Amino acid sequence: MTAYHTPDALLRHAPSKIARNLVYLRHFGALNRHEAARLVGDTCLNSTIAVLAINYGLTIQRTPEKVPNRWGEPTDCMRYRLPASEHERADKVLAHMFERSGRTVA
């Protein structure tokens, strides 16, 4: 089993799309659907957030925002953020995800 000691390594070696999103939210910051597609390869972030909330019991903050679309016009989307109060729980969920895949977080 390999241990991953840095947020970059966790992100690079996350065992699933859901784990990648959680690593990003936990260690790098908030995401909207456009950023998620580019940064973590998730094209349906809203569904991933629902899985993190429903299946893993994590509380994810949601903030509506407007971002430019491909033509520069504003479009509505949601920014998702993992509050600091959820970091310990997120670490446990990540450890579980990595262990199930045969990998070790730290």
Describe the protein.
- By secondary structure, this protein is α+β, with helices and mostly antiparallel strands.
- α1 (7-13) runs antiparallel to α2.
- The protein has five helices and two strands; from the N terminus they run ααααββα.
- The chain has a single domain (7-98), classed as Arc Repressor Mutant, subunit A (Orthogonal Bundle), CATH 1.10.10.
State the main characteristics:
106 residues; alpha+beta; 46% helix
Helix content: 40-55%
- Count of discrete alpha- or pi-helical segments spanning 4 or more residues: 5
Work out the number of β strands: 2
| Integer tally of domains | 1
List segments where confidence is low: pLDDT < 50 over at least 5 consecutive residues.
none
Question: How do the strands and helices of this protein lay out in sequence?
Answer:
Blueprint: H1 7-13, H2 17-27, H3 33-39, H4 45-54, E1 61-68, E2 74-81, H5 87-100
Antiparallel strand pairs: 1-2
Describe the structure concisely.
This protein has 106 residues and is an alpha+beta fold. The chain has helices at 7-13, 17-27, 33-39, 45-54, 87-100; strands at 61-68, 74-81.
